Amino acid sequence: xxxxxxxxxxxxxxxxxxxxxxxxxxxxxxxxxxxxxxxxxxxxxxxxxxxxxxxxxxxxxxxxxxxxxxxxxxxxxxxxxxxxxxxxxxxxxxxxxxxxxxxxxxxxxxxxxxxxxxxxxxxxxxxxxxxxxxxxxxxxxxxxxxxxxxxxxxxxxxxxxxxxxxxxxxxxxxxxxxxxxxxxxxxxxxxxxxxxxxxxxxxxxxxxxxxxxxxxxxxxxxxxxxxxx
Length: 229
Ligand SMILES: *Cc1c(COP(=O)(O)O)cnc(C)c1O
Prior knowledge:
Largest sheet: 8 strands, parallel
Strand order of the largest sheet: 7-6-5-4-3-2-1-8
Mean pLDDT: 94
Helix content: 40-55%
Low-confidence stretches: none
Order of helices and strands: HEHEHEHEHEHEHEHEH
Bound molecules: pyridoxal-5'-phosphate
Number of strands: 8
Radius of gyration: 17 Å
């Protein structure tokens, strides 16, 4: 098989597992968006994914994402930034992404805002720390409401929901249940924030069971990362 055929086979296999899980959860396919996380992979792979019908792509490092999004501008993809961010990079990231999944502190809000509010809104997830250690980023659950209020008061940002990564030492399903509860907290402040970004290659079935709407799937589709770029 060519590499493109293998990529297509892995994509189809993941999509079939997603469809099965959505049915099992009694949910509808339209509720779930599959984002392919392409960090560490070259633009050629993203072109192959686009040819296979992929529209939503995720990146996690600004230095890598900026040139890739520029080079692939002709594809009209929807770009998701899923990685940790320094606040001095946020303004630059805003220029090339449509969604940010990792808003976890108020210091990011001003650089992400569009100042006078004339551009398209940036769709945001608040990342919640599910480990209680801040190791993989995310806001402490106790900081969730003030952060959501500050985000809602910032021009040019649209709060869509919560994002989380389960701790390594916990069953993903119980961590996703806590994320779902965090989402309910946010929805009391913004009823339209109904999205939940959860589920990676190893745990997307559990995430779907707990109500995930945006899956961030990398290696199960792309194969192992081979290079930076
Ligand atoms: C890399 C990454 C993913 C994808 O992880 P896989 O295990 O390769 O599916 C998802 N979310 C975030 C935040 C990531 O950094």
